[in-house]
């Protein structure tokens, strides 16, 4: 039984780690889950977003200090600007009619 519980937890963690991160809603802590993003770059992303408004595309990250083409190419697979990545809000219930 313990093995099954551990396997289930492992699958859930794996699924969570594969989820896209919404760079418009993610906290600095959530942004650190992205490849090549540590504490200082995460803070720079949040600062840029605060000063300039929401990102219109992931490519706009190249305007953030410390993010070049190399890091940007890694981020494109895991970062999004809309949708359900890095859900800061709560899931909405389905309303039945």
Automatic annotation (TrEMBL):
Check the UniProt entry and state the signal peptide residues, or none: 1-19
GO molecular function per UniProt: DNA binding
Supply the name of the protein: ComE1
Ranges where the Helix-hairpin-helix DNA-binding motif class domain occurs? 29-48, 59-78
The GO annotation for biological process reads: DNA repair; protein secretion by the type II secretion system
Give the SMART domains listed for this entry.
Answer: HhH1
Task: Extract the PANTHER family matched here.
Answer: ENDONUCLEASE/EXONUCLEASE/PHOSPHATASE FAMILY DOMAIN-CONTAINING PROTEIN 1, ENDONUCLEASE_EXONUCLEASE_PHOSPHATASE FAMILY DOMAIN-CONTAINING PROTEIN 1
Q: Which organism is it from?
A: Neisseria animaloris
Q: Output the InterPro entries linked to this UniProt entry.
A: Competence_ComEA_HhH (IPR004509), Endo/Exo/Phosphatase_dom_1 (IPR051675), Hlx-hairpin-Hlx_DNA-bd_motif (IPR003583), RuvA_2-like (IPR010994)
């Amino acid at each position: 039984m313990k093995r099954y519980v551990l396997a289930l937890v492992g699958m859930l963690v794996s699924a969570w780690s594969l989820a896209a991160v919404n760079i418009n809603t993610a906290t600095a802590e959530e942004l650190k889950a992205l490849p090549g993003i540590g504490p200082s770059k995460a803070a720079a992303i949040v600062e840029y977003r605060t000063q300039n408004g929401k990102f219109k595309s992931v490519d706009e990250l190249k305007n953030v200090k410390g993010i070049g083409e190399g890091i940007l190419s890694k981020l494109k697979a895991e970062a999004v600007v809309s949708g359900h990545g890095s859900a800061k809000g709560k899931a909405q219930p389905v309303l039945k009619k």
